[in-house]
């Protein structure tokens, strides 16, 4: 079993909200100001700021001051860790489902041979 570290837990918690997932997706295309990021959402500035804070706490987003604008950028490292964690379980389930498929095929073949003998 792979360890679920506090950092990984924060990453998954941050990505569990549709606003934050959409924000990460938009930042994957490049840095944006807080104002640009918040436009598609019907949230108050304070409400959107809370979502950004969660993303920053998870290490997914950084903010830099550019004059009076706060520019947000995506930090991919936590996403890589989440991908690695998910990939482990993808292999686990893939291997188990492959084994189940082989078992079912063997059972079917066995049943067919049994019927032919009758």
From TrEMBL:
UniProt-listed SMART domains: HTH_ARSR
Protein known as: Metalloregulator ArsR/SmtB family transcription factor
CDD domains, A to Z: HTH_ARSR
Domain HTH arsR-type: 1-94
SUPFAM superfamilies xrefs: Winged helix' DNA-binding domain
């Amino acid at each position: 079993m792979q360890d679920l570290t506090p950092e990984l837990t924060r990453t998954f918690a941050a990505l569990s909200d549709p606003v934050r997932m959409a924000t990460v997706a938009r930042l994957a295309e490049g840095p944006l100001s807080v104002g640009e990021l918040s436009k598609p959402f019907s949230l108050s500035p304070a409400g959107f700021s809370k979502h950004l804070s969660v993303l920053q706490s998870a290490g997914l987003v950084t903010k830099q001051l550019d004059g009076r604008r706060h520019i947000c950028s995506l930090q991919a490292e936590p996403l890589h860790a989440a991908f690695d964690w998910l990939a482990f379980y993808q292999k686990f389930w893939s291997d188990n489902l492959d084994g189940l498929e082989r078992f079912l095929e063997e059972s079917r073949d066995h049943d067919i041979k049994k019927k032919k003998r009758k």
